[in-house]
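Hi Q.,

Before the meeting this afternoon, I wanted you to have the pantoate prediction in hand. No need to reply - just skim if you have a minute. The sequence and ligand are here:
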Amino acid sequence: MQTIRDMADLPAVLRAVRGGGATLALVPTMGALHAGHMALVAEARARADKVAATIFVNPLQFGAGEDLGRYPRQEAEDAAMLEAAGCDLLWLPTPGQLYPHGFATTVSVAGVSERWDGAARPGHFAGVATVVAKLLLAVRPDVALFGEKDFQQLAVIRRMVADLGLGPEIVGVPTVRDVDGLALSSRNIYLTAEERHRALALPRGLQDSAEAIRAGQHVATVLDQAELALRDAGFERIDYLALVDAATLEPLNAPAGEMRLIAAATIGTTRLIDNIPV
Ligand code: PAF
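Predicted structure with the ligand bound:
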C-alpha cells in the first residue's frame, strides 16, 4: 500500500494506480478504523480493481463544543489495518491543503440535510458535503463507499453527487454490529463499560419498534414507547427517533414505501446514532 500526505503527489500516484485502465474505489474515513470500515474496504475490493482510502478528521463537520479535540487518532494502527485489508493507496490529507488560507466555498445540500442530524448539529452536513466533494474531485474514483450507519449522511452524499454530477457511483454498505447488536462506531470508545451495556437499549429499541410497526401498531405510539424505553435505560437526551422515507428522510406517521427507523441519543457524554430498515 502506498501512503501519501501531500496533495501535490496525488495526480502521479493516481496515474500509476490506474495504470492499464484499472477501476478505482474510494473509501473516505476519519480514521479510528474498525470492522465497519473494513467492510467498506471489502466491498470496495469487490467493486473495483484498486482501492484508495483517505483518513482525515474533518474540522468542518464538527460543531462548537463537539468532540473534534478528543476524536480518536491512531494513524499507524489504521494504516496497518488498511494494508492488511488489501487497500492500494492511503491518502492522509492535511487541513491546510484541503482548506487553504482564505477558504470560503462550501457545499450545502438543501432538504435532505435539514432535519434530524442537520437540525441537531447545525453545519454538520455542509462540512461533510464539502469535504466529500473535495475528496471525490481530487481522487476521481469510479465508485465511493459509505456506511449505512450514517444513513442521513449517505442520503446527503447521494443527493450532492447527483446534483453536481460528480460522477462516481455511491454505494451504501450495511452497518456492522457487535455480537450484542451495538452498531460499531469510532465513538463507542467513549462509553464506560456500564454505559455500553445500557446503550444496547438503542439497537433493541429500534428492532422492537420495527417489529411493532410491521405488525401494524400505530407508529406514533410505537415511537413514544421506544423513547420511554431509551430514557429508562439512561439516555439523557434523545435528539430524534423517527420513521422516515429511506430516500428523502421525510418523517412518516404511517408505513409507506421503503422506510427506515432512525435515532440519535446521548448516554453519558456520548452521542450515538443508529438506524434499521423497516
Ligand atoms: O463518515 C465519516 O467518516 C465522515 O463523515 C466522512 C464521510 C469520511 C467525511 O468526513
